[in-house]
Predict the structure.
Amino acid sequence: MNIAVSLAMEDFVKRFGAVYEHSPWVAEQCFVQACKVQDPVKLAEIFAACVDRAGTETKLALIRAHPDLAGRAAVAGGLTADSSDEQASAGIGQCTPEEFRRFQEHNARYKEKFGFPFIMAVRNSNRHQILAAFERRLKNSRDQEFEQAMVEIHEIARLRLAKMFEGSSKV
């Protein structure tokens, strides 16, 4: 790989490396196929296909890279800018003490049962819908939740890409 391609890849990864939470490997692996794509929908498809081709352990690491909803990282201000914005858009910051307690309990039960955090694309939701989803999904099997987590992660990425492209016709 020549220096120009390497620099272009660095710029691409800088721009799109956070689309999948703490997983710049997705943008790195998609660079050749996606570097000239101007459409966020197509880019989301390329990224999703890359993730879908990954092995189970890589997918599990991707799931585990996500923060708890209304968790310690959110309280301590340790979320990525995207995660912070997404949780704020769902009104998680306006939880009552009782709702916050329920989030903490659900997070703990979910992680204990499944071994990874609860993932939900919360941008177009509210805290009541999220709590209801927690309660429904806690009844699922680990395999069902693993698959649901991947669906939600792809939706988060799609929404992040759409937001990046708002008001722009170029990548």
The two ends are 22 Å apart (CA to CA). The chain has a mean pLDDT of 89. Residues 34 and 46 are 7 Å apart (CA to CA).
